[in-house]
Predict the 3D structure of the following.
Amino acid sequence: MKHAPNGARARAGWLALAALVLAGTGPAAATAAAAADQQAPRHAPAAQCQGGRLSASAAGGYNQVRVTVVNKGSKPCTLSGFPTVALAGQGSPDRNKPLSVARQGSAKPVQLAPGGRAVTTITFTPVLGEADGYCASGAKPTVAPTMVLGIAGTRTQVAPNDGGEFALCGGTVTASAFRSA
């Protein structure tokens, strides 16, 4: 039987030792790396948007209003959920007629960078006919020059972009969840 030279035997020993070391530490190293990833500091989510740092504008048609909300603050914030909706006369958002809101879609947090925008769409049953409109249900139409939206804990008063009035049948509107614009 022929023996391997001492150099070859030494290399084989080192290779075997390296294989054992790698086999023993490979999964442990992966586990340690995963644990380090889990312990790594994560960025805190942005604070909830505050009404005083938001502005809102509305543009609409005969049976819906698209409301755009803008973060006017200097820091990112999170907006989520649905607006509340009421109709009001000119002057005071405190003197309003609350409407029931049927929520459409699922609400997910929307991150708004400074200057970032989110939108929601308010849809209502339209008034039919011309000047003295009517409701298909026979109910009397509700007409108001402004709409009051509850957004991020404050009330924001918006008017139709055409200078007219909001006119709807019934006391329920549908609102979509806020989403990025």
Remarks:
- Helices lie at 6-39.
- The longest helix spans residues 6-39.
- The mean pLDDT is 79.
